[in-house]
Each structure stands twice: as structure tokens, then as C-alpha cells.
Design brief:
Elements lengths: L3 H6 L3 H10 L28 H7 L2 H9 L17 E5 L5 E4 L3 E2 L7 E2 L7 E6 L6 E6 L5 E6 L9 E4 L4 E5 L3
Antiparallel strand pairs: 1-2, 1-9, 3-4, 4-8, 5-6, 6-7, 7-8
């Protein structure tokens, strides 16, 4: 089974990039539609809004990532190059998710971390794109953040590959 990094670096990278750029959600086998953005239309979260409220609160690009489980273009997020001390929070509900202390450059084009903050994220299996991955969501609002892979650095060996659009950054001592 290939990791996302191996897939992107293999011959499938052109197809994956085209699909992501064109927002071909239908291409992703088993991908939920917008009404199932949290992976379960009946899921209950601490922070819940109607679809219309989410659309009003978020930019269209943030909505696509957080509520439709989309992916931003690699190397497009300013947070990828954010190196100050601080905290990364959910753009949907402001829950603090990651510390700058766990951020590293994975050379994949997305902000990457080796661990989330305690009780910040939830995960579920994602079978889209012809591979099995672990999808990462905000545990408070269910917003899609990205995926976690087992090819990260020590001490966890994990790579939380996050969409910058799904997060905000607040500089501060951590």
C-alpha cells in the first residue's frame, strides 16, 4: 500500500494534481458529498451550524476544505511557510489544534505536524483516491483538516498533513 507521499511522487501525481485543481470530488471513490461533510450527516459536535451558516462564516475555499473535505493546492498556503512560535487553530471553530513546536517541513506542500494538541482532533478511515488513509477532523466542529500518515519524524513517526485553509495561526510563546 502506498503512502500519499509515494503516490504524489509517483506517476499518479499529475492525475492527482489535475483532480485536486478541478475539484473532481466525484473522481474520489466513496467520497462523501457536501451533506456528509463530517463523514456522518447525523454526527453531533460541540459546534454545529447549518450549511447556510457555514457558507456565510467561511470563505468559499475554506468551506470546500472544511465542509466538503476538499484539498488545497500544494504549496499554496502561507501557513506552509509559517515558522514563528504559536498555535494553529481550526478556521471553523477556533479550537487550538497544533503547536508550532510540532511543525516540520515535510516537503509535500502542506503544513505538517508530528502531533496534534491533546483532545484536538478526531480521525476516521478514508478510502478515496484508490488508497486507504486516515482522515483528520476537528473534534469540536467536525471540519476536515487533512490526513495523517506514518512517515513522519520522531518522536511519533506521524505526519499530520493539514490544509492551511482549514486553520488559522496565532503567534505567541508556546
Amino acid at each position: 500500500m502506498k503512502s500519499r507521499r509515494q503516490f504524489l511522487l509517483s506517476g499518479g501525481s499529475a492525475l492527482a494534481t489535475l483532480a485536486a485543481l478541478a475539484n473532481w470530488r466525484a473522481f474520489a471513490a466513496g467520497a462523501p458529498d457536501a451533506s456528509e461533510a463530517s463523514g456522518n450527516a447525523a454526527a453531533r459536535f460541540e459546534v454545529m451550524h447549518s450549511d447556510a451558516q457555514w457558507r456565510q462564516m467561511l470563505t468559499s475555499a475554506q468551506y470546500h476544505v472544511l465542509r466538503e473535505e476538499g484539498t488545497e493546492r500544494p504549496f499554496s498556503s502561507p501557513l506552509n511557510d509559517e515558522h514563528r512560535s504559536g498555535l494553529f487553530a481550526c478556521a471553523g471553530c477556533s479550537l487550538e489544534l497544533f503547536s508550532s513546536r510540532t511543525k516540520f517541513d515535510s516537503h509535500t506542500g502542506w503544513p505538517s505536524f508530528w502531533a496534534p494538541l491533546d483532545h484536538a482532533v478526531a480521525t476516521r478511515e478514508d478510502g478515496s483516491w484508490g488508497m486507504v488513509r486516515t482522515e483528520v477532523h476537528c473534534r469540536r466542529c467536525g471540519g476536515h483538516l487533512g490526513h495523517v500518515f506514518d512517515d513522519g519524524p520522531k518522536p511519533t513517526g506521524l505526519r499530520y498533513c493539514m490544509n492551511g485553509l482549514a486553520m488559522t495561526f496565532t503567534p505567541r510563546a508556546v
